Structures are given as C-alpha cells and as structure tokens.
Amino acid sequence: MGGDHAPGVNVQGALWARSELGVNLTLVGDEHLIRKELGKNGKLNNSIRIHHCSQMVAMDELPLKALRHRKDVSIMVAFDLARRGNVDAVVSAGNSGATVGAAVLTLGRLKGVERPALAGIFPGAKGNVVLIDVGANVDTKPRQLFEFGIMGDIFTRSLLNIDNPKVGILNIGQEGSKGNEQVRIAHELFKKGPFNFVGNVEGRDIFSGDVQVIVSDGFVGNVALKLSEGMAETIGVMFEREISRSLISRLGFWLSRRAFEHFKRNLDYAEHGGALLLGVKGVGIICHGDSSPKAIKNAIRTAIDFVNNHVKERLEEGLAAFQTKGNER
C-alpha cells in the first residue's frame, strides 16, 4: 500500500517478479484494492497470497505516531509475518521512517547495532559502490557511523563478493582534520576498525569505484542518493536532446545504441530497486516512493539475493566477532 502510485505499481511489480523470478509472494494491504489491481492484469489465481490489513501509514505522516496508535497497519503486519517465519523478506515503497520503525519494533536490532542503516548500491567506474546510510538516520553519532562501517564491510563481502573492500568516510576533504565534529571523531574510531579503512573521501569519489564502502549519516547520504538519481535522469535528457540536433548525431547514436542502453541501465536506480536495511533481525528493502514496476520487481530480486547469500546471518557473525576482539583488547 506504500508509495506515490500504490497499490497499482506495487501489484504490477509483484506480478513481474512472480513471472520472471518464480518467487512466492504475499501482498499485504487492503484486499479489495489489491484484488481490483490483480483483476486489471487478468491475474486472480492463487499464485500470489493476499494478507488483508485495514490501515496504512501515509507518505506524509509522522511514522512513530501512526505505528503506536494503529493496530492493523500494513507495514507492521508485513514485518510481523517475517518475525513469525511466514515470509523471508519485506519490500516496501512506503514511508521510509515507518518502514524502519516497523522493522525495529517488530524484528528488533542485531546485537551490537545501535541504529540500523540503509545501504544503497551505486554504479562505479571500477565496480559497484555501497553508500551507507542513505536515509534511515538523520542525526548520527560517531559510534553509530563506525557501526555503519562494520555493516557496510560485511555486506559488501557477502552480497557483492568483494574481498577486503576499501572503506571511507564521506567528507568535504580527504584530510582527517576536515568536517564536523562527529566525522572527525568517527575518523579516529575508523582508524582502529576491523576493516580496510582508507580515510575520508569526497562526493566526487562516489562513482569512481576506488573505494567500495562509503559511510555517511542518513541526511548527507540521502542527498547524495537523490542528487545521483537526478543527475542520471538529466544526463539522459541532455543526451537525447543532443542526438536530435543533426542527422550525423542520430546516425552515431544508432551505431552506438547498445553501448548507450548499457550505460543508461547502469545509471538507472530501478536496476537495484531499493536500499537494504542492515542491522535488524530480518530482511527489509526500502524502495523509492515513486518506484516503477521495474524497480519493485528488482527490489524483490535484491531481497532474494539478500536471503540466499545469508547476509543477515553474516552480519550477526561479523558483529559478534568484532565485539569479541574488542573485549579481548
């Protein structure tokens, strides 16, 4: 039920995922509206389950107030299904704060995690880059940034299969003395961390791929995420405008169209579908509010990868190992 175009886009994306990925799905929300959308697609069989809920959290609502005062909110019910083992993962395009809050209240946090964080995957020139946090925590303490670094390192090893990834802190300069107080303190913590810390990185380094894990608070990370999405869309519009200027340009595009299509796919956020919520006792994917059916389908695919690669279990093991080393010191 969440998102700017719900439930139509979410149902369509779910149908694509069911068809292409063969996954078993449960749609949580208003059964009447969901069945209406399924009927539009000629799909009223039993391949997709429906779990009826009478309430939801709107995109502009205060999340915690809604979660605490309503008993049948769809996002809470969805995570409760995960807690009880009825589903393996939850995908939502709804209110981000409500989704994070529902996950924490229902599933609980992993041991050693003070604040769960959202990990976004960016296309880099030398390979994918993980930016964490991209929106779960607006105000973050240095110790919490340090935890994001640990989770980002484990996540990158587990899901992206990158051995010994380089970890950096997003800052306004590379020197350790740069940035606000929280980032300067975090820099000192990171130097003692159980990962390959390479220091501060700047915004222009996000897409280079030289550093595989970049840590920031959720405010800065979300701005970087939205900026990159806007930049990708603008590049596409400008490119198409330049192509239409002359016959030679159109001919050149025709000859290189496959390369352009590949380039466009790399920049399209819908290819990954959503950000992964790290640090809770379960699997949650948070999608863009204006996600397309393609983004929903790919978010479900990402959830499948997250589950099949046992990322949550590896996070638990990695965090426990770090705590043991810390106690020994």
Q: If you had to describe this structure to a student in words, what would you say it looks like?
A:
This protein is an alpha/beta fold and 329 residues long. The longest helix is centred in the C-terminal third of the chain and has 26 residues, at 218-243. It is built from 11 helices and 10 strands. An 8-stranded mixed beta sheet has the order 3-10-9-4-5-8-6-7, sandwiched between helices. It is globular, with a radius of gyration of 21 Å.
Helical/strand content category: alpha/beta
Question: What is the number of E strands?
Answer: 10
Q: Secondary-structure element sequence?
A: HEHEHHEHEEHEHEEHHEEHH
Overall shape: it is globular
**Assigned CATH architecture of the largest domain:** 3-Layer(aba) Sandwich
* Strand order, largest beta sheet: 3-10-9-4-5-8-6-7
| Strand percent estimate | 5-15%
Separate helix tally:
11
Overall helicity: 40-55%
User: Terminal Cα separation, in Å?
Assistant: 48 Å
Largest sheet: 8 strands, mixed
Enumerate the spans where pLDDT stays under 50 for 5 or more consecutive residues.
none
CATH evolutionary superfamily of the largest domain? Isopropylmalate Dehydrogenase
Q: What is the radius of gyration computed over CA atoms, rounded to a whole number of angstroms? A: 21 Å
In total, the number of domains comes to: 2
Mean pLDDT: 85
Q: What is the class of the largest domain in the CATH system?
A: Alpha Beta
The CATH topology of the largest domain is given as Isopropylmalate Dehydrogenase
